[in-house]
Amino acid sequence: MEAKFKQEIQQMMYIAGETQDVSIQTIKLIEDIILDQVVHMLKTAHDLASRRGSRVFSNNDLIFQFRHDTARVERLRTFLTWKAIRKTVKDSDEKEGFVDEADMEEAAPTDEAPAAKGKFPTVSLPWDVSSFFSEQVAEAPEDITDITSSEAALEKLRKNDERTRDMTVAEYATWSEYRHASLTYRKAKRFRDWCGLGVIAENKPNDDVMDILGFLTSEMVQSLTAEALKVQALELAYLDGQL
């Protein structure tokens, strides 16, 4: 069976440091691994929702599954925060509120940010300490800079800098374009059919589930690729030592 997201996965792998000449077998293997992970997450989310007596799962049922991975939760919170900000200020980039990792890393607070009300959208989780209190303190506009100066964001920027340092102008243009690769953006029906969303489990229609799954699958592909390249480098170093 052919890979459903061949182009998207190839682009994500390129962002993680792979070449553009990736075999179909490798792409299919990556896709199968990602599919297994997504199906597992959907089943777990469905089980968590059922325990609450709910027929549909929410954003929190997905995020709860990796709540101990602080760095990942922080990156996802940043992603959703920028998405909420873009939606609030009605960005004119005709992306209908969509924001991807590339936008998130490059974005900076603008004068149009919701500073007029002295606060900006925040993403709170039910297991956060702040959720234990009935009154929530709104964050000030100047705190928005903390989103892009976090350790997780800085580490990602450092890695991207290393990967692009020796690129030509053409290679960097390709890399910048591929950063927007997504399995879910404008591919909702294909993604739902692929992973069984709506059959295995159903989500609340107004939630950010598709964006969260798109974010997570992109990270999965890049993480798998990065680890595979590390193993490849070790094998090559070992072989060189044997010669």
From TrEMBL:
- Keyword Iron assigned: no
Q: Which GO terms describe its biological process?
A: regulation of transcription by RNA polymerase II; transcription by RNA polymerase II
Q: Name one Pfam family in it.
A: TFIID-18kDa
- UniProt keyword terms in alphabetical order: Activator, Nucleus, Transcription, Transcription regulation
Q: What is its main location?
A: nucleus
Q: In the UniProt record, which is one GO cellular component term?
A: SAGA complex
Q: Which InterPro entries match?
A: Histone-fold, TFIID_TAF13
Enumerate the subcellular locations listed in this protein's record, separating them with semicolons: Nucleus
The record's GO molecular-function terms, alphabetically, read: protein heterodimerization activity; transcription coregulator activity
- Source organism, top-level taxon: Eukaryota
Q: Which CDD domains match?
A: HFD_SPT3
Q: Which PANTHER family match?
A: TRANSCRIPTION INITIATION FACTOR TFIID/SUPT3-RELATED, TRANSCRIPTION INITIATION PROTEIN SPT3 HOMOLOG
Which family would the database say this protein is a member of?
Belongs to the SPT3 family.
Quote the protein name from its UniProt record: SAGA complex subunit spt3
The record lists the lineage as:
Eukaryota, Fungi, Dikarya, Ascomycota, Pezizomycotina
